[in-house]
Amino acid sequence: MSKKVLVLGEVRDGSLRNVSFEAVAAAKTVAEGGEVVGVLLGEAVQSLGAELIQSGADRVVVVENEKLKQYTSDGYSQALLAVIDQEKPESLVFGHTALGKDLSPRIAAKLSSGLISDATAVEVAGGNVVFTRPIYSGKAFEKKIVTDGLIFATVRPNNIAPLEKDESRSGEVSSLSVEIKDLRAIVKEVVRKASEGVDLSEAKVVISGGRGVKSAEGFAPLKELAAVLGGAIGASRGACDAEYCDYSLQIGQTGKVVTPDLYIACGISGAIQHLAGMSNSKVIVAINKDPEANIFKVADYGIVGDLFEVVPLLTEEFKKL
Ligand code: FAD
């Protein structure tokens, strides 16, 4: 049955994040031929509407307000609830990002709706929209359908292929004026940690270091490999706890969840809490000098050896390609 689906476009530093296009593709499936309405919230985001339409949205509703310049759950939910009130969608799709994880339960509660969070796939089967999501830290997957009420889901970045951009697509980009009541929290300043290179949660290649890198300097060969492959650097909690790198790089149960095309684990033992954050990567390469290391159980390719010898060799070989 065709539905109207509202999909949230996520803006960072003036650009749409990739997950927005993946969410549009998921929304297309959920809509089953119905209308996909993109939503953009922010201070000056109108110009991004066309890009959302080229990626598959049929039209876009924009709420611009200086109180939406920085994300706050309070401000965004006021704006989004106004859009929902206007559009009356049968379904909502957000990215399963830090923003989506914060906003979606709040909106679901306000709408007295359920929420299927962290979906890695969506399909139409047996007359139902079926979402797949990982459970038990990624050790199993469950399939979920909504039998009553709103279909509300968040989609994990890097799992659902975006549609090919079609620059000939056009659609209405309309504005909705929303009076945002006083915010309970105001972001006065954003102090960013200096981060190098590619955004970890959206990277297609992740090179991760564990306690085996032995020091902060030990990440240097990994960074060289990442530069050659256009990848991002990640880490185990072991490496973060040992202060070899910042906690913002931690991958795992209590860190980030990544699903790149290629994950190279260097000097990481493969504790279950680490696997929870990376075991759904498409191709996993493990480099460890212990042939019994648990990481080899999830690896597609395993190299038993010293990472300080193996990683520079890989870098040299990849440079030749
Ligand atoms: P180690 O287990 O010490 O492994 C180091 C590996 O490096 C060894 O396998 C060794 O053989 C290899 N090695 C050493 N030298 C070399 C070399 N020169 N070349 C090649 N290999 C070498 N961990 C996470 O990663 N993410 C999480 O989100 C997370 N959450 C947690 C939550 C809870 C509640 C708890 C209790 C733990 C959590 N942990 C998490 C910690 C987790 O249990 C492990 O302690 C941690 O992942 C180990 O990090 P590691 O593999 O780098 O270190």
How would you explain this protein's 3D organization?
This protein is of the alpha/beta class. It is 26% helix and 25% strand. The chain contains 8 helices and 17 strands. It has helices at 18-31, 49-54, 73-87, 98-110, 220-229, 237-241, 272-278, 307-320; strands at 5-8, 11-12, 15-16, 36-42, 59-64, 91-95, 116-119, 121-125, 128-135, 140-144, 151-155, 173-175, 205-209, 232-235, 262-266, 283-288, 301-304. Strands 7-11-6-1-4-5-12 form a 7-stranded parallel β-sheet, with helices on both faces. Strands 14-13-15-16-17 form a 5-stranded parallel β-sheet. Strands 8-9-10 form a 3-stranded antiparallel β-sheet, with helices on one face. Helix 3 (73-87) packs across helix 4 and helix 5 packs parallel to helix 8. The longest helix has 15 residues, at 73-87. The protein is globular, with a radius of gyration of 21 Å. The model has no long low-confidence stretch (mean pLDDT 95). The structure holds flavin-adenine dinucleotide. The site of flavin-adenine dinucleotide (FAD) has 28 residues, from helix 6, helix 7, strand 16 and helix 8. Flavin-adenine dinucleotide (FAD) binds at residues 210-212, 236-239, 250-255, 267-269, 271, 273-274, 277, 287-290, 293, 306-308.
